[in-house]
Amino acid sequence: MMFEPIPYSFYKAGTAYFWVHFGLIILGFLISLATVIGQWANPAPYGKHQNSNAYWGPMIPQRLGHMISDAVPGVLLFSLVYFLYSSEENERNILNYVFFAMFLCHTVHRGIIHPLVMRYKNPKVALGIVLGGGIPNILYHWLNANHIAIAGYYSTYYYDPRFILGVLLYLAGFIINRWADWKLRSLRHTKGHSTKQFIEVEGSKGYYIPYGGLFEFVSCPNYFGELVQWIGWTLATWSLAGFVWTCFSCATFFARSRHNHQWYKDQFQDYPQNRKVLIPFLY
């Protein structure tokens, strides 16, 4: 089997669709760069880092805000772009639908199931914070839906190591991310007492030290799992759309994990000193 550097057909160079897609890719890289610079200095103001002194617009229910920022671009927009935008350009094969299902597995859980089952510490969130998270999602989800809808993957790509390894990484990251989210959700159930897995100390403001699994190695295994997931997505789709989305995810996860890690250390005097920030044994 001959290795194909680009294992699919795509828009013809020079067409309007071509320039729109790759122009937005460039914009996505610029937003990723601005995100890592901005969030490295100051954490995004939600969750542990929410600042009650800053005004980010009217308050709305946290569950609704989560659905607006994640489900609207990740499920609704993604599906509309996949099925409707430039649909005449390519006849989709089974691989296109596999990628569509993979992406929706994440966004349906992240944007619909997770908000419904999560025990939020704060029942309200500012609309500005919701829009700040949702607007970049519109760009990156549009790009990925556009790519997997249009790319005509070659019939041999089923057996390509990029596809096989990418799918395996995606599944592994998905499982890690779901497990870590469940673990963090369980913290809210332990309020008022301590266990071997969750330890509360005075002044913790309702937060706890999680123990067990990957929490023994890093402070934010939820972000680590999702990072692995998107690396797998980029490898499996072999696309610039996937790569720029992973770059934006890295910009968010590395900065957010750094601030979360420092917050834990500041909040808990007995926080495990051997834990890394995001990547086991490395960072």
TrEMBL record:
Pfam families named in the record: Steroid_dh (PF02544)
Name under which the protein is recorded: Steroid 5-alpha-reductase DET2-like isoform X1
Limits of the 3-oxo-5-alpha-steroid 4-dehydrogenase C-terminal domain: 146-283
Transmembrane found in the keyword field: yes
Transmembrane domains' residue ranges: 20-43, 64-85, 97-113, 125-143, 163-180, 230-255
GO molecular function, one term: oxidoreductase activity, acting on the CH-CH group of donors
Location, primary (coarse class): membrane
InterPro entries linked: 3-oxo-5_a-steroid_4-DH_C, SRD5A/TECR
Key words of the record: Membrane, Transmembrane, Transmembrane helix
Source taxon at top rank: Eukaryota
